[in-house]
Amino acid sequence: MSSLIENSPVAHQYKSMIESFYPYKSFNQAQEQLHDLVPIDYFLAKELTITLFIFIGSPNSVFTDAEVSSEVPTNKEDVSLLFHLIIAISKAIRAGNSCLPLSNIAGSRFCFYASDNGIVSHNGYEFPLIVPLKNFLSSLALTPDKNKAIVVTEQALYLRRYYNFEQELNDFIADNQTNTRLASRFASAAIVQCLNDLFKIEGTNNCVDEIDWQKVAVANALNKRLSIIAGGPGTGKTYTVTKLLAAIVSLNSPEALKIALVAPTGKAAQRLTESLLNAISGFKGEIASEILDKIPYQAQTLHRLLGVIPNKVNFRHHQDNKLTLDVLVVDEVSMVDLPMMVRLIRALPEHCQLVLLGDADQLPSVAVGNVLADLAPRPHKGYSKANKSYLTEVTRFKGFKPFKNNAYDHITFLTKSRRFDSKGLVGRIAELVITGDATKSWNLLAEQEIPALLSLNINQWLPQLVKQYYLPLAKCEELSKAFSLFGQFRILCATRVGLEGVENINQQVEQILYNSGNTQANNQFYHGKPIMITQNDYGLGLFNGDIGLVWTNEKGMLIAYFEQPNGEYLTVLPSRLPSFESVYAMTIHKTQGSEFQHLVMVLPQNKDSKILSRELLYTGITRAKKGLQIASAQSTWFQSVDTQIKRYSGIQTDTNEH
Ligand SMILES: Nc1ncnc2c1ncn2[C@@H]1O[C@H](COP(=O)(O)OP(=O)(O)OP(=O)(O)O)[C@@H](O)[C@H]1O
Prior knowledge:
By secondary structure, the chain is α/β, with parallel strands linked by helices. It folds into 3 domains: about 1-165; about 185-200 and about 210-415, Rossmann fold, CATH 3.40.50; about 425-525 and about 585-640, Rossmann fold (3-Layer(aba) Sandwich), CATH 3.40.50.300. It is about 40% helix and about 15% strand. The chain binds adenosine-5'-triphosphate (ATP). Adenosine-5'-triphosphate binds near residues 233, 234, 239, 282 and 418. Heterotrimer of RecB, RecC and RecD. All subunits contribute to DNA-binding. InterPro entries: Coronavir_polyprotein_1ab, P-loop_NTPase, RecD, UvrD-like_helicase_C. It comes from Thalassotalea piscium.
């Protein structure tokens, strides 16, 4: 609260009055009434309620009685309503939403809970219907332009911080839609020639009906400052972006462009580097070597690009210290949260071309936002007249669906999986799960010849898998072989705790290793132990989620080795490691950006676990390159496939729709 209020006797008086109107005297009392309340919800409401009722002027403004009283409540009900609204916003943000839609709470009994047998444990709080709710909110004048911590729009309530982030992103999208900036940079004839070279279409002027969306993605990205290439696993996003980079390099030749490639995590950056190297080497003979030589492949993390400042949320690069870049490719965008995306766009110079890649069906970011799904809404409704004619001219494809405006012009969806045999188990299960078909997906798992459904008793299958994949780790002759063996297989869990959680399964694996002859496996550190960092250490350059192996060096010392995106190892003395854990099993969340030849996914027997969703299953399933096995009760599987994650936001790709 501002000192202006603290120092004002009038404000003091009002403050005491409002506090006396608070609906609860303590967190414990609130917790008895409201189901699933955590301290942050309660204390945020306690802190903000006062500041919203009392006008907070700028330091130079004169604080008068009139200004205070115009917005100060005269009754307990209003204070209670605002208090509960702030709790509701806090809960919505904890669930990853950037806002709280008013229609979600109006007329509802909030935080009410009754057990299956009807016993009410939490009475909750009843919100007014939409009209009185809106009237109340407009009396508080929580408009975007007033400097208050809560913002109310026509549809939703926001914490100002997230409202501002969303506005910045909306402005960025709108600005790129009206001004693509790159549109006139290259002559169409040059683009046509370049696309024909890359996609091997002999110089024909005839239009073709069957659209190659990879070619469209390249053409589409070439004339836009912002473009999104979205698609499921193996649909060729990296393959396509490699061709895009080839096109950019060749069209800009001889000018040398500054191009950066990033991903949200170290593992994802490493995978992007590997995939780009594979793609580049696959194009030898097809694309001129002087072009291939100029395509960058070394990816880094988003944090590293922006420049982490230890213990600060801000980065070295921002609106006043922009990146020196001409092209930026961001992979695995589904993992990027709203604040991070905004920090990234703030740091981009005006002319920099931004290409976003990702799979919007995967789990959204851990923190607030569902940026990729919001920026690339589905279904794709079609291209504007101008974009349609540009695409037809340069790709020679016809039949693009028309749309009344340019809202979807920057988006290309790739749908054909090139990695999974669409008739193979992984591809089919992933498709059935994400489209919500619990019965068919379960039946498909049940009918596999090589069992895809494992017993719920992990002792029945874990020892054999440990002996196959984990026991040989310590016996590998070289560290690189151990990393490659470790990358073959992983146990994925939905939860950390419980019988089917990461913690228990890691313990079980170490016990099996010990019983099978690895007598070091009950030590904190031992040769061949895989570990995952669980806390950022900017000094060491280790980040939450980084995976390493403890290995004996040539001097006989145990050292933790971490593979870097450039193929080198970061080495750290075990005693200097930030907090870490064993990683034979890891949560599905943490596997985003990774893939394994064979995986086992273990789901909790408690089907009511809040974490379960079809996106969680899909993310887990699509980490498997080949072998997929699942240990789940049928009820858990059905519950998960039937639950779809919905995150609310006000990000608008199509402003005319709202
Ligand atoms: N048009 C194509 N012709 C031949 N092979 C292709 C084509 N497109 C993609 N591929 C191959 O399919 C595989 C998957 O492609 P890629 O790695 O680019 O997919 P991705 O969408 O980036 O996958 P992920 O989501 O897992 O990162 C690669 O081996 C790639 O070479």
